[in-house]
Design goal:
Strands 3-11-5-6-7-8 form a 6-stranded antiparallel beta sheet. It is globular, with a radius of gyration of 19 Å. The protein has 2 helices and 30 strands. With 354 residues, the protein is mainly β. It folds into 3 domains: 19-119; 125-257, no CATH class; 260-353, no CATH class. It has helices at 104-107, 225-228, and strands at residues 5-8, 14-17, 24-28, 34-37, 49-55, 63-66, 73-76, 84-85, 90-94, 97-100, 112-119, 125-131, 136-140, 147-154, 168-171, 179-182, 190-191, 218-222, 233-234, 237-238, 248-255, 257-258, 261-267, 273-276, 281-288, 296-299, 308-309, 326-329, 332-335, 346-353.
């Protein structure tokens, strides 16, 4: 693969994405500091990004690290808990990868780990931080196109259950900007029904910009306790806040469609389908929208007959798909499994290319 993948967007303008050869990296834990080489630059001289690490041979949590909060701060993707400060987990973002310390969560000597690296790049991914204000906030982003998927997570220090908030997820496949999913839960899409009774029905659209979907330059949060809290108490829960009374948040924005990413949807048919992405994927996230269903993760390194669940800490070995029921193909992915093809069930996905 060349340093930059190129393709033509819908307007006929060429788009580029980062080199994704090192997007998936498997490594064996050593129990002591080791440098993991991916060939992807998230150092201070780069634009930054985030790294997702999960043991594929044990029931460790899924961990997220990003360059804005710093290498020593990690969050559980498979749990709604707050941010953990650990100087022995990820210790640095490097020009060719990252360094892990002695923490069992990312470097146990008896375990194998998989890391996914999302570099910040136009037409691919953006990461941002902001402080809640209990009002309405519109943010600019650097994707150069509409987001296809947005994750928002509060990032206070981990303490107790009162210091936890959901991973709020919007995807373009959801009916309106006021529907959301929880990344750490297999539940169905829910409507944002005025989580704070002080506000009106106009506040029920957490991601909309000018009464519409997120745009190619902006996205927004509005009056929502889960994504824009400021020293609030709701239903007996007191949301954590910083010294100024605000709740800090981190937002992860994924491009709608580019040379190395595609956020889309399909409807199950119980037989087989090939879903077009415009490239051969190496990684796929799939979630049912109409019924309870896990956040399935399939990647070429753990093999297409196995999967992880973003909302679950189980190993890839304990989650298997029948032979021939899934494959990455040139231009997309093929499905021949009831796991992903229940009749009349709508599914959302995000695919990352080779």
């Amino acid at each position: 693969m060349s340093m930059m993948q190129m393709m033509l967007g819908a307007s006929g303008v060429s788009m580029s994405s980062p080199d994704l050869d090192g997007f998936i990296k498997q490594y064996s834990g050593t129990g002591s500091t080791q440098v993991i080489t991916t060939g992807m630059d998230l150092s201070s001289s780069s634009d930054g990004g985030f790294i997702w690490i999960k043991s594929t041979t044990s029931t460790e949590e899924h961990w997220a690290f990003d360059t804005l909060n710093g290498a020593s701060y990690r969050r559980m993707i498979s749990n709604a808990k707050g941010q953990v400060h650990d100087t022995n987990s990820l210790t640095s973002f490097n020009s060719t990868g990252f360094t892990v310390g002695s923490s069992d969560e990312v470097n146990d000597s008896s375990k194998t780990f998989t890391a996914y690296t999302f570099p910040k790049h136009e037409n691919f991914f953006d990461v941002q931080t902001y402080n809640g204000n209990a009002g309405s906030q519109v943010f600019s982003h650097s994707l150069g196109q509409k987001p296809g998927m947005i994750w928002v997570k509060s990032t206070p220090a981990y303490g107790n259950n009162e210091e936890s908030q959901y991973w709020m997820v919007w995807h373009k496949a959801l009916d309106t900007p006021n529907y959301w999913l929880n990344l750490s839960d297999p539940g169905t899409a829910a409507q944002m029904d005025r989580m704070n009774d002080e506000h009106t029905a106009d506040d029920d659209f957490p991601f909309q910009v000018d009464n519409g979907y997120p745009t190619d330059t902006q996205w927004a949060v509005h009056f929502q306790t889960m994504m824009n809290a400021y020293n609030q108490t709701t239903n007996g829960w007191h949301w954590p806040y910083g010294s100024g009374g605000y709740v800090p948040y981190t937002a992860f924005l994924f491009a709608e469609e580019g040379p190395g990413i595609k956020c889309g949807s399909y409807t199950g048919n119980t037989t087989s389908q090939t879903i077009s992405t415009g490239f051969k994927p190496q990684w796929l996230m799939v979630k049912a929208l109409d019924s309870t269903g896990d956040w399935f993760i399939i990647d070429k390194e753990i093999g297409v007959s196995n999967y992880l669940k973003a909302n679950d800490d189980s190993t890839s070995a304990s989650n298997s798909i029948g032979s021939g029921e899934f494959s990455f193909v040139s231009g997309g992915f093929s499905l021949n499994s009831s796991t992903f093809l229940n009749a009349a069930e709508d599914y959302m996905y995000m695919a990352i290319g080779e």
